[in-house]
Request: fold
Amino acid sequence: MERRSKEMTRINPEDILRKRFSARFRGASRKKVLEFLDTTSLMLRDALVENMDLRERLKASADTLKERKDESNLVIDKLTVSIQEAKHMRSEALNRAFQIMAQTDEKVERMIAKAQLESIKIHEDIDQARILKLHFQNELDMLVGNHLEMIEHVITGKGE
Reply:
């Protein structure tokens, strides 16, 4: 059986067309056998042509698949590089953000310290102004009191 399948794979359409059978009395119709051989030869030729076409298409598909795979690998490589670059950029951005935040914190602390010093100075100035106000008010009260006494002396001195 195995030998027969090997022989059949080696048969081509021309072999079928050239095949001749000896004539026998009461055998098959020669015309029908020849028609069958012609039909079989044409079918085998069509099958071989289709098989060659399918092999070419399969090879083209395999080539296209390999190209697509190579392109996919390139895209994957580029994406991998891009991801690495993005991670690096993110890391640098985070480091820079932390630096900016630290610098900002330092500036804020200096501003707060300066504001506190200014606040203390303002409170001292307010206290100084209150002291001056009290002193001025006492002076004014004394001056007004003295003037009132003088006016009273003048009035009482005139009336005497």
The mean pLDDT is 88. The two ends are 168 Å apart (CA to CA). The chain has one domain: 2-159.
